[in-house]
Amino acid sequence: MDKTTLACRLEERRKKLFGNPDWNGMDFVEVADDQLSLCVHFFGQVPEGVGVRNVRIEGGRRIRDIQVVNVEIDRANDPELDDCLHITLDRFGDFSTYRLCLVESVTITREQGEATIEAAHRPLSGLDPRYSCIDFSFKVDCPSDLDCKTQRECPPEVFPAPEINYLAKDYASFRQLILDRLAVTMPDWQERHIPDIGVTLVELLAYAGDHLSYYQDAVATEAYLDTARQRISVRRHARLVGYRMHEGNNARAWVTVWTKTDLSPLKPGDFYFITGFADIKTASGNIVRAVDLEQVPADRYEVFEPLVSDPDKALSFLAAHSEIRFYTWGDNACCLVQGATRATLLDEAEIEVKAGTGSASPPKEEGKANGGKVAETRPQRALALRPGDVLIFEEKLGPTTGKTADADPAKRHAVRLTKVTESYDGLLHRSVLEIEWAPEDALPFS
Questions:
Q1: CA dist., res. 347 & res. 344, Å (int)
Q2: Which residue in 62, 74, 127, 339 is a FRET match for 252, CA 20 to 30 A apart?
Q3: Model-level pTM?
């Protein structure tokens, strides 16, 4: 998860990287006046051995595929000044935002597979994954030739606007509006009897205005798919884009299943979901046996059957998947920005507290053997997510007060995973899981 996906108000991770001898990262980028050279500053010293093949420039709208010509390291003699990594480019970019990444030096050929391509996108050794890439713009200091519009010395004469009630929408309000206007423009006309020709014309215009007002509202309502109320309007909107309207289907909704322990796999035909009612009696937790529903009238609850692509495939309910927490890489007060298509999850088993003792037993740990020694000990992973699984994002706490009661129930969003990658935070020693989903499922809120 990089800085463009996760926006944090308190960047605690940035403070921890300053002065850390084991990890480094890019702090900011300076663009030269000729826009052909960049000066990259780091949290510490510039890593040794950075070459042309370690630098990758991405982004751009009109000007893309910018190549790196030369890379030089400028060491500062003054300890108060930062080192600078000078990068020379073959051309400058446009007004869009570009991304500079430092990756491992790997040459990709046609004969090599996906593993080599993924290696070319790995962060440079020793760089923190969150600060291995940085966004910049070539045109941040470009002067503008735009000028403000000058004020005219003699402004146009302002005439008083007629007092018209623009809230008039029906026959009665239009009739009164016209009579009030005629009282101003024709004060001598005081006739109000129905047989009078003036009153007849006023009522005729009010009737026409009422009809036009209804037609205007109807057209404005039926002109958009989100506001159309008539089925024929919705059908015509769909046919304009090449779709034929379906005749309808039963109600569907995403359902989350919460469990304290891992359950045995169940086939979709062996269980179903029901809506709750006042005097419902459950056998254990929220699981209701079929024998308990035999004495309950069927009109007191609604039944929802699980819909899956493969009815013969059993479903597994894992305790670790009941509630999964995001991983913020040590930062606080973070949020996923609107339009995000990737995130990082904490992939560690929760610590179990023994009843009656008040003591916690840490989860099992797994280590890598290296010549008979345990080189690195990592917490045991708990998640079993795969591409194609569906995750539902839910706001659990109010963003302002931090209370559960202030959480917005409308902020729930389901996404289907397209990529799942196991990762590890070497700085904080936490096992994490990098997930991605399709742009069509991009987060609609922050």
A1: 9
A2: 339
A3: 0.56
Return the domain boundaries, the chain.
6-136, 171-240, 262-315, 320-441
pLDDT in tens, 21-45: 888 899 899 998 888 999 999 888 8
138-164 pLDDT, tens digit per residue, is 887 766 555 555 555 666 777 777 777
Q: What CATH architecture does domain 6-136 belong to?
A: Sandwich (2.60)
